[in-house]
Write a structure and sequence with these properties.
Strand order of the largest sheet: 4-3-5
Low-confidence stretches: none
Number of domains: 2
CATH superfamily of the largest domain: Ferric-uptake regulator, C-terminal dimerisarion domain
CATH architecture of the largest domain: 2-Layer Sandwich
Oligomer: single chain
Largest sheet: 3 strands, mixed
Strand content: 5-15%
Number of strands: 5
Mean pLDDT: 79
CATH topology of the largest domain: Dna Ligase, domain 1
Structural class: mainly alpha
Number of helices: 7
Order of helices and strands: HHHHEEEEHEHH
């Protein structure tokens, strides 16, 4: 049923679940929505129900086999259960994009595992979690920037410590030993902080170059 038809519907007692099912069924193929996103659709269509009602309706629809869920760090996403053949999902933990795919090798793996564990296999579904290419690129760019900032901070600390070491030499030439010691100690503290900044930069570089 189209969204235009849904707009003309006024929910009556007992119809809420049917309306939610029609909203999910009307989604374009490959579209997966969270319960709050389904709720936003009901508001756009002028359906006067609460978010908790949407959650309850989706839960009942799943129990009855009308919708299926896709799990991810951003929460459950829903799709119609009768949309084409069984398929699996690639889910990005960064942006939440969900990509459907079918692979006979994975399907066979599910059946093999079920049989090994003494289960009668009926169907299999795999949700593969990771990061899409765009999120990977953005994450890499962020790490490069962060690594450069650590090194820039280390450079500032080293330059500042060099100035203080020079002052320490001047104090030493004038036999101001106490001021020499204090100045050199401060310079050493800054050098230690610079070392920490360098270590932080290297840690990011090591993370992104690990295969």
């Amino acid at each position: 049923m189209s969204e235009e038809n849904l707009k003309r519907r006024t929910p009556r007692y007992g119809e809420t679940q049917q309306i939610i099912a029609e909203i999910v069924k009307a989604l374009p193929k490959g579209t997966h929505l969270t319960a709050p996103e389904v709720y936003e659709r009901t508001k756009v269509l002028g359906v006067d129900i609460s978010l908790s009602t949407v959650y309850r309706s989706l839960h009942r629809l799943k129990l009855h086999g009308n919708v299926s869920t896709v799990a991810g760090e951003r929460g459950l996403r829903y799709e119609t259960a009768d949309e084409g053949p069984d398929h699996d999902h690639l889910i990005c933990l960064g942006c939440g994009i969900t990509i459907e795919f079918m692979d006979d090798l994975i399907r066979g793996f599910g059946k093999t595992v079920a049989e090994r564990k003494g289960f009668e296999h009926t169907s299999s579904r795999f949700d593969i979690l990771g990061y899409c290419s765009e999120c990977n690129a953005n994450d890499f760019g962020h790490c490069v920037q962060q690594s450069a900032e650590y090194l820039a901070k280390a450079m500032e600390l080293i330059e500042s410590s060099a100035v203080q070491i020079k002052q320490g030499i001047e104090f030493l030439d004038t036999r101001k030993l106490a001021r020499t010691a204090a100045t050199v100690q401060t310079a050493m503290q800054k050098l230690n902080k610079a070392l920490t900044e360098c270590e932080s930069s290297l840690a990011l570089i090591a993370r992104d170059t690990t295969v």
